[in-house]
Specification:
The protein has a single domain, classed as TIM Barrel. Helices cover 46% and strands 15% of the residues. The chain contains 12 helices and 10 strands. Helix 7 packs across helix 8 and helix 10 packs parallel to helix 12.
Length: 331
Amino acid sequence: MDKNILEETAKKMMAQPKGILAMDESSPTIAKRLASINTENNEINRRRYRELIVTAPNLSNYISGAILFEETFDQKMSDGTLFRDYLNTIGILPGIKVDKGAKDFSNHPNEKITEGLDGLRERLSGYYAHGAKFCKWRAVITIDQDIPSEACIESNMNALARYASLCQENNLVPIVEPEVLINGSHTIEQCDIVTRKSIKSLFKNLDMLNVYLPGTVLKPSMVISGQDNSSRADSSTVANMTVDCLSECVPETTSGIAFLSGGQSDTEAEEHLNLMNKKNNLPWRVTFSYARAIQAAALSAWQGDDTNLDNAQKILIERASRCSKASVGEL
């Protein structure tokens, strides 16, 4: 582990006024994205869609790094350039999602455990050799009656810490993503309790495994009401409770925080981020690592038809620009 390399990469990832673009949809998720615009899910169309994203004019004004799916990391664009190499040429750090997805957690109904640690050391060595600068691993925590269990939280946070330590061994900055799902009818107070438990467990495990926090990025969900709750908390409450939670649970030496949008609407995702940065003098940079909140409107405008490409890219850049402004409280 070279702490200087890790810290330098993390600082670039957290550079103002930028955020991290999540374009690492798994195979089932990208299939749903393309199905929503009646476009066949094949390798060519996946390339076309992801090329639309990375070639949007001036993307690097708003985006510091892009999380790629394994296919995209090794994929060539229409002119034969590797996506990862193209991103480097426009000043965007290439990263890669390395987990193998959330699977059913044995003996724990309705809970998930993220897999992918087997063979990870060797995979990470290869990714670094081919130009990756950072990685991402997502853990999923569900709120429902009698869950999450302590076993689910502890097992997922320990796996996140083991992944992070392996990343840093290979001079790759780990993005650690403990996502408390928005699915359900839970209150914001219930979300706050579970989010605090999860983040405290995460940093306990990171400390136990000697993970270097100035070379680590946290990608949390916001403290927010379940999407099926009939009386959801307002934006100001979400922003205030999220900041309070993070201030009490996240060590100040952590390089930065990049939120996931996690089922929020585009407006919600940018408004909550803007309020957090407008109201508070925070010890770490607080920005975004959004997927749907940046891409969804552009995907809808594209419809798989490249005659719509320019308009789709304008929409993508508008979304990235608004999220960028929100990341410095200037929306």
